[in-house]
Amino acid sequence: MNFFESEIVQAEAKQIFGDYQDLVQLGGHYGKFDREGKRLYIEQMETLFERYRIFIKRVELSEDFMAQMTVKQLETFLGQFGLTPPQMFAQMEQTLERMKRELEP
């Protein structure tokens, strides 16, 4: 079975990307959140990025041809911005850490 034909993989991908879209939309109002709202938003983004990191690792570890093509496409896409997948995740973490520091009194 193709990696992406798995119902579990499809459900997880759908959930991750749906949650991401919801958080990005919600993030448009981030400046209006109180301190607790901002803290909760950051925590949700951290959780989402960890789920995404795990999903991508599963794709990378798969020997399935389509999974490997997906990895190559991600690397090519990020390469256009001078990034690798690990650098992308590091930048995500740095952004969230900066957001946390901004919440400190």
UniProtKB/TrEMBL annotation:
Name of the protein in question: DUF1825 domain-containing protein
Species the sequence originates in: Gloeomargarita lithophora Alchichica-D10
